[in-house]
């Protein structure tokens, strides 16, 4: 496991959480995001120096969770209390904790994996609402944090018909780390290796912490992912099994997408037991809701256009379904090194081409203001019969950006820019823009000719791995 600090990135989220917890008012905080994204670590860091009760719920009977939370409250009190011992219901326990808050200003209660509690106590959101309203009416400074990995459930907590609707004072949908944040786990690697590591392990802090930056990328791939018994060897299936009762067909769809089937027709051609787009649609919708795939439409197409492309959203899952699952038999029998030599290394640059586009999208959306006239309003791709442009963005000042990405082992030349300029003339996107900028993003640098053109064209930006990483 990496000796690098276990808390990388999240500075902005940590600061905003602490600011909310410092407000000295009744606060209801809703925090959610995918498993392994670092919610619990973030909350533990935010409450580390506070008077806090932190409870990690488990999938057991509601009475057992009640008992375990009572034990945690008793541990924090560090003194026996007959009243607490006599508590037998959730409303009574939350009311008791609220009474503690009146004596211990700013007390924070964290209910992590809140959906597990609600599985056996259906009325718990209503109970929480009732107790929180009582504390709010009395103006007692009390922080209640509800955290969960079941994204649909957590979003529903904020839905119109939920009793907690409108009561949250803070909401955090915690995303994976960006490629730039993830690269900080490998401070001594070359820029190209750091980007490649993101292409394998993605932005989940848990996955990245399993890596050892003193070893090579290949060694980490073999030790953390490929070898039978490696910590992430079964992670892809575990991700599905944690969310779905019957994950097999979803895994087959993900394998199809991972192998390059980015359209409905491509997927149907690969997944033989799904015979129509209408039959495929609910599976796609579920995978999108779980944030396991990204659905992209061309930015110059009608919002109702059916011409969409599908990509696996998590680079680790993309890597596994591209290279791991198809070679699972060889991996199970101990041939991780041979799988790497023959099934991964020859095709890795091709795989990274798609990841590199996604990195470029993140760069424009999150960091592009460093080089562009304004921040991005929307970022995506456009394609048509005669053109396919990797990166497209419209900035807040209406400037339009077009970009081409090349994960090549050779320098990119002026011909790539000319092809990009030709393709932009095929689309109506940004036709009335006051200004157009061009990006050429290259793994291996640029020819002297293209370098010279950047000096002559203020709207041309050549983006190297060093620029991407900042």
From TrEMBL:
Q: What sequence ranges are listed for the domain DUF234?
A: 320-410
SUPFAM superfamilies, from UniProt? P-loop containing nucleoside triphosphate hydrolases (SSF52540), Restriction endonuclease-like (SSF52980)
- Superkingdom classification of source: Bacteria
**Carries keyword Membrane?**
no
The chain positions of domain ATPase read 7-209
Q: A GO molecular-function term, please?
A: ATP binding
Alphabetically sorted, this entry's keywords are:
ATP-binding, Nucleotide-binding
Which PANTHER family does the entry mention? ATPASE
This chain belongs to which protein, by name?
A: ATP-binding protein
**Organism annotation:** Persicimonas caeni
């Amino acid at each position: 496991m990496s000796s690098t600090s276990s808390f990388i990135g999240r500075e902005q989220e940590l600061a905003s959480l602490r600011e909310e917890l410092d407000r000295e008012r009744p606060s209801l905080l809703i925090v959610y995001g995918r498993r392994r994204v670092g919610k619990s670590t973030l909350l533990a860091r935010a409450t580390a120096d506070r008077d806090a009760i932190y409870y990690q719920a488990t999938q057991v009977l509601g009475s057992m969770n009640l008992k375990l939370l009572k034990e945690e409250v008793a541990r924090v009190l560090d003194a026996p209390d007959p009243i607490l011992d006599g508590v037998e219901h959730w409303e009574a326990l939350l009311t008791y904790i609220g009474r503690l808050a009146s004596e211990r200003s700013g007390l924070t209660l964290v209910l992590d994996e809140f959906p597990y509690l609600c599985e056996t106590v259906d009325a718990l959101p209503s109970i929480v609402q009732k107790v929180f309203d009582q504390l709010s009416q009395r103006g007692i400074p009390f922080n209640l944090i509800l955290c969960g990995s079941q994204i649909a459930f957590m979003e529903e907590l904020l839905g119109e018909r939920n009793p907690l609707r409108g009561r949250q004072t803070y909401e955090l949908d915690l995303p994976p780390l960006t490629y730039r944040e993830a690269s900080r786990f490998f401070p001594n690697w070359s820029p190209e290796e750091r980007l490649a590591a993101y292409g394998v392990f993605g932005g989940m802090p848990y996955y990245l912490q399993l890596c050892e930056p003193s070893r090579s990328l290949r060694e980490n791939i073999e030790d953390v992912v490929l070898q039978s018994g490696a910590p992430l060897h079964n992670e892809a299936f575990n991700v599905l099994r944690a969310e779905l009762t019957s994950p097999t067909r979803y895994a087959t769809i993900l394998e199809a997408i991972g192998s390059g089937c980015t359209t409905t027709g491509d997927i149907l051609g690969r997944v033989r037991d799904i015979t129509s787009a209408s039959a495929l649609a609910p599976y796609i919708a579920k995978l999108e809701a779980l944030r396991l795939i990204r659905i992209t439409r061309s930015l110059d197409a009608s919002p109702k256009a059916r011409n969409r492309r599908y990509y696996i959203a998590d680079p680790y899952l993309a890597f596994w379904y591209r290279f791991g699952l198809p070679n699972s038999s060889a991996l199970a029998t101990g041939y991780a090194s041979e799988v790497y030599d023959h099934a991964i290394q020859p095709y890795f640059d091709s795989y990274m081409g798609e990841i590199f586009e996604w990195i470029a999208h993140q760069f424009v959306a999150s960091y592009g203001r460093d080089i562009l006239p304004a921040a991005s309003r929307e970022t995506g791709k456009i394609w048509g019969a005669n053109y396919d442009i990797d990166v497209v963005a419209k900035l807040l000042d209406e400037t339009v950006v077009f970009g081409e990405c090349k994960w090549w082992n050779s320098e990119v030349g002026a011909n790539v820019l000319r092809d990009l300029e030709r393709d932009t003339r095929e689309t109506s996107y940004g036709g009335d823009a006051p200004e157009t900028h061009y990006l050429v993003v290259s793994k291996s640098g640029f020819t002297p000719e293209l370098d010279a053109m950047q000096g002559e064209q203020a709207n041309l930006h050549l983006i190297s791995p060093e620029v991407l990483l900042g």
